[in-house]
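Morning!

This is the sequence you dropped in the shared folder:
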Amino acid sequence: MGAAQRTEVRGRGWKRPIRIDAGKFDAVARAILDALTAEPVPLRVLVERVAARLPAFDGSVAWYTISCARELELRGELLRQARPVRYGLPARDSGARAATSAASSPATDSARCTPS
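The structure's back. Tokens below.
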């Protein structure tokens, strides 16, 4: 009996990581990154875009989107604006991902979803 491969998913402020099916993580993470642009969008819009890219997804698209987005945020692959909560891609200049990961915090409140 072989167990399905699992991916550890972390979130800022979480007490412990969760483990989800690696195939689902990969599919949802790719759909999130394909759905986002530099212009931040509310979570509702992000979930709709991910659902449109994964019409036969087996599971809660909203739950997996939030979970995968939190891991991608920690990796510096997307930015989460605190108030109102919106998601966007980081700037593509060199060093932006490293600066974003080090400088952002859950309480960061910015007008745009770009590193300061």
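Headline: The helical segments are 22-35, 43-53, 61-75, 96-103.

More detail when I'm at my desk.
O.
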